[in-house]
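> @MW can you paste both from yesterday?
MW: sure, first one:
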Amino acid sequence: MKKNVALVTGHANQALAEKISAKLGVALLDEEIVQFKDGEIQAYYNETIRGKHVFIIQPTFSPAENILELLILIDAAKRASAKEIIAVVPYFGYSRQDRKDRPRTSIGAKLMANLLTAAGINRLITMDLHADQIQGFFEVPVDHLYASTVFLPYIRNLKWDNLCIVSPDTGGTKRASTYAKHLACDFAIGFKQREKANEVATLQIIGSVKDKNVILLDDIMDTGGTLCKAADRVKELGANKVYAMCTHALLSGNAMEKLEASSIDKIIVTDTIPLKRPSDKFEVLTISAVVADVIKSVVEHTSIAPHFEIGNI
């Protein structure tokens, strides 16, 4: 396998790439990514990748240079005669822009799919897309992985009685109900109303959380406003412990400070996005083993179905 595979990383999440490299026993490729004084980016591969399966590991969270860096690394691999180019995008940026929710607006997720395809990818590996239908935006295979692969074992190891999975908003109803089914526990749904983007005006809980140990479950943690309000509300309703569990820790602005000061007892995230700084309230679970297994399956043409047995939510 080592002879046929090249692992590449941009600057967005080098720590995750190093973990995946260690799991596979394949060294990261010697490369250079140069940014000129005017901001332009250029990529060089210092080793041959002719005829190889090239996996480029780069989540596309802000700043936009992360997206451009990924596109340029793809283009360089295509021009270096790679056999196959696979974009490993643990966090797929612009995934919340998956439809026209008002007239004359963009669909950013489709644009990102078009850019990656035009750049030359043959496959995409990603995790917990904000909307499953984004897979259909691509004309190449998409391996859509689920953080439940690492979250569910963590929850089971807590061995909590009176467990209740709570979705902070109605969009996560399917996710919460599926977790509850696997864990044989109750679930509840948050119903929120916004006055403007990124600001929650009111939040109500549908379902009983009294005397329950609650896990607030979401895919993206951005400003932290929804989670803070949901935690306050479930505690008002008589919940005991309250943990939050989110795949992608964007943590925009002062979100980390806001969450640290919140009524949430602990926050569990994955390393799809690097945590801005260490925090006693945050615990990071790595997805490196899951991604490494899928990379191995892609190269060896074996099934990745086992990853969906507890994760297809």
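MW: second:
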Amino acid sequence: MVETVGVIDIGTNSTRLLIGRVYSGDRLEVVRTALETTRLGENLAGGRLLERAMDRTIKCLQAYRKLLESAGTDEVVVAATAAVREAGNRERFLELVKEMTGLSVRVLSGREEAVYGYLGVVSGLGVDPGETVVVDVGGGSTEFVWTQAGSPVFRSLPLGAVRMTEQEYTDAQMAAIIGTAAEEAAGLRHGRLVGVGGTVTTLVAMARQLAVYDPERVHGFRLGREEVDRILGRIEAVGVEERSRIPGLQPERADIIVAGARIVRLVMRVLDVPEMTVSEADILHGLALYGRRVSKEKA
């Protein structure tokens, strides 16, 4: 049996789409992807979603809805993460999305966000879950997840590229937030650190100087600590305008990439790992394979 599934991830910085075919045995074939920088988490520290940010995101969702319809999807899963999860006016946003797009949004808990991302990585990279720590550096939060005694363990931290840019945290402040979770994961002596999310994939694109983003050249790339330090030094030394012209860096991400890279560097330092394997397979893939089952059960 084959199902055509559509998944939308409404993140703090971007809204992403995946359309794929799911085969029996939980195999996913990606048919189409899309990404738009909607910055729903603009002014995240304010605790409320801004009207202009909601408008940007809803326009994107309307466009995605047309793509889903043209693809003839059998099922659609729409999920939102940190920005919506923390917003005081989240119900208004959910109602507006339903009214203007017809889409029902499922707001993921920190645990769900971490676990679906982890499942996406395991399915996409084929790594041994017992020897892997996954870190997802998002716009509003960073998730750590690994397995212990056969069950997923997760830590969701209020640390993200958008959030840290707006709040201007120092390395010491961020290290304090990362410390407990990272040290706990490091204590388990896992053999591999896998990174997912727009920050880490962008760092790979910059390392490989990809003028045109190529997922196949990003997926599975081993990003070393020295390379992260080199990139961070380069982007910290220039302004946003000059930074936006660096090959591999989307101009829309130029203002937040420094904070994102600092988070990645600190994670690798605290875990004391020389490199991070980067995965294109992430929460979208996990939701496509496993999230639709939960949606059916809740329906």
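> thanks! Residues 111-283 form a domain with the Nucleotidyltransferase; domain 5 fold (CATH 3.30.420.150).
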